[in-house]
Design a protein that fits this description.
alpha/beta, 2 domains, 6-stranded mixed sheet, 5-stranded parallel sheet, 5 helices, 15 strands
Length: 247
């Protein structure tokens, strides 16, 4: 059954959760820990989860699921008591976040609102994602099935990820396409979602450039000028300006 050691561990994890909120939420700068503990829904959801998880591990029936259900009604965040979550998880805003039964989350992970760590089909056993340390998952992203999100990866907002993600890479799109941004990125979240690359747009630009080259070649061979060079298309996705996340 639960003892003093379990409560000491719970207090340690709670302090780490509050520290994660202060470090990664600009709205928490200068806010006392007590106020974060009292008013941040992500903290409430994690506290309830950790109690429910301890009860679940102790073999208590009904009560862990009841705590999860009440927490979902209060915060909009649903975490199955059997999920395994490391230290320093930060759930920003949190409304609509779902973490399934067999999900595994490492340390210092950041989830934004609307994230789903869900399963696929009706298979038993491991059916939810494994998220390694220092991963950032953007608003509305859906990670489905027993996939692995590598250390330091970044999942763009509204991406749908159904395959493994390499470490230190960025995923965008539906279905999600892993891309690498500037080689190995510095670890930690930066909510700069508007500067993510678009691999589909880049592929189309590459095809347009290739078509333009072929048109010029044909024109040179035939002695005619191309009427409308396709290679002169404007970029499909130009994003300029400073990082809104302040980076």
């Amino acid at each position: 059954m639960l003892g003093f050691g379990a409560f000491a561990l719970l207090a340690k994890e709670l302090r780490r959760d509050v520290a994660a909120a202060r470090d990664r939420d600009p709205a928490a700068k200068g806010v006392p820990p007590g106020e974060i503990l009292a008013t941040w829904p992500g903290i409430h959801a994690l506290l309830a989860y950790r109690v429910a998880h301890a009860l679940h591990g102790a073999g208590v029936r009904l009560l862990p699921r009841t705590i999860s259900m009440l927490t979902r009604a209060l915060t909009g965040i649903e975490i199955h008591p059997a999920a395994r979550i490391g230290e320093g998880l930060f759930i920003d805003h949190g409304a609509g976040v779902v973490i399934g039964e067999t999900a595994d989350i490492g340390d210092d992970v950041t989830l934004y609102q609307g994230v789903t760590l869900g399963g696929t089909g009706f298979a038993t056993g491991k059916r939810h994602p494994t998220v390694q340390d220092n991963v950032t998952i953007g608003s509305g992203a859906k990670l489905l099935g027993p996939i692995t999100i590598g250390h330091g990866a970044k999942i763009g907002a509204n991406s749908v990820v159904i395959t493994d993600v390499p470490p230190n890479s960025t995923v965008v799109g539906n279905p999600g396409h892993p891309v690498r941004v500037d080689g190995r990125r510095p670890e930690g979240p930066d909510a700069d979602w508007i500067h993510l690359p678009d691999p589909i747009a880049e592929a189309i630009q590459g095809l347009a450039s290739r078509i333009g080259t072929l048109e010029r070649t044909v024109s040179e061979l035939s002695g005619e000028e191309p009427e409308d060079p396709v290679a002169d298309v404007r970029p499909l996705r130009t994003v300029k300006g400073p990082n809104p996340a302040g980076g």
